[in-house]
Amino acid sequence: MAENMMHAVQYSSYGKGVAGLKHVEVPIPRAKKGEVLLKVEATSLNPLDWKIQKGVIRPFLPRKFPYIPGTDVAGEVVKVGAGVKDFKAGDKVVAALTLGSAGGLGEFVVAEESLTVARPPQVSAAEGSGLPIAGITAYQALTAAGVKLDGSGPQLNLLITAASGGVGHYAVQLAKLGNTHVTATCGARNLHLVKSLGADEVLDYNTPDGAALKSPSGCKYDSVIQCTLGVIPWSTFEPNLSTNGKVIQLTPNATAFMTYLVKKLTLSKKQLIPLYADVNKKDLDYLVQLVKEGKLKTVIDSKHPLSKAEDAWAKCLDGHATGKIIAEP
Ligand SMILES: NC(=O)c1ccc[n+]([C@@H]2O[C@H](COP(=O)([O-])OP(=O)(O)OC[C@H]3O[C@@H](n4cnc5c(N)ncnc54)[C@H](OP(=O)(O)O)[C@@H]3O)[C@@H](O)[C@H]2O)c1
């Protein structure tokens, strides 16, 4: 391969799933003003990656084809663009790439300095790459639920659904840094794992009580962090909520927005809150520090070489990851 070229995986149209991915040789991107060029060491996938390919956010994303997907990366700085102050060649980092350009499924990628944080040696590339979207979403959902991670504040009863997934497994660990009682749902094969992450009680979602989201100890939830890909109807949450209980909905559909509006307009004490993560440097740095301090870990579902990125994509599409799916050049 020529010196200025790299291997990447891209797609050129909406749809087609794994079959739409193509291995290509493309020029190594250049770091412009305020950007750093990274040699990618690990990229974690999110359901958002295949949702963009499916056309869920069309016509906004992708902005143009071909598109190299992947937004959550860890790697080493190779070059810095003009005006970059905080990084130099050789620095290990974690970066959140903007959705417009993405590029994580390539050997090199440019990241904005404003969305890049230092990665200490205690945080592996794979662990760090899991954090941007999934970790920040979990953190911001807990903030919306009123949880203070320094342990201050009154005890809150939380339900975290899909606690074995990318967002859910971070949410359980972060919630337990605060003053919380955590009920979690997952499949039977992950009951032990989710308990080991700190959940106080764990429900198998394939049992009647699990499907009904009923706490084994009988507690009513002050907040639900709703992490399942599929939508759970309000009628299932409602009887399990405390008087002022709220559902933080991470995958809101039209019905969820309707419920949100109705609850707001009727001044209902029980609320549904659609949440979209605001990916930012401060929160990413905070999470990297927690991993460094051993207070948070990334559960790795699987690692796949970039040459087999299709396997990682298929796993993500399947919706049954335990923790994060990682691709490595
Ligand atoms: N709003 C935002 O800003 C934002 C940000 C990030 C993610 N999201 C969305 O949040 C959702 C979750 O993302 P993710 O990365 O955590 O997905 P993920 O890693 O693909 O989640 C997979 C996990 O969900 C579990 N699961 C599936 N259905 C379940 C159910 N009914 N009850 C309990 N567990 C269930 C699966 O367990 P089994 O394998 O046992 O079935 C699996 O472990 C996605 O829709 C994603 O797009 C939104």
From TrEMBL:
Cleavable signal peptide: none
Domain Enoyl reductase (ER): residue ranges: 17-327
InterPro entries: ADH-like_N, Chloroplast_QOR, ER, GroES-like_sf, NAD(P)-bd_dom_sf
Molecular-function GO terms, alphabetical: oxidoreductase activity
Annotated CDD domains: MDR1 (cd08267)
Protein name: Alcohol dehydrogenase superfamily, zinc-type
Organism: Corchorus capsularis
Organism taxonomic ancestry: Eukaryota, Viridiplantae, Streptophyta, Embryophyta, Tracheophyta
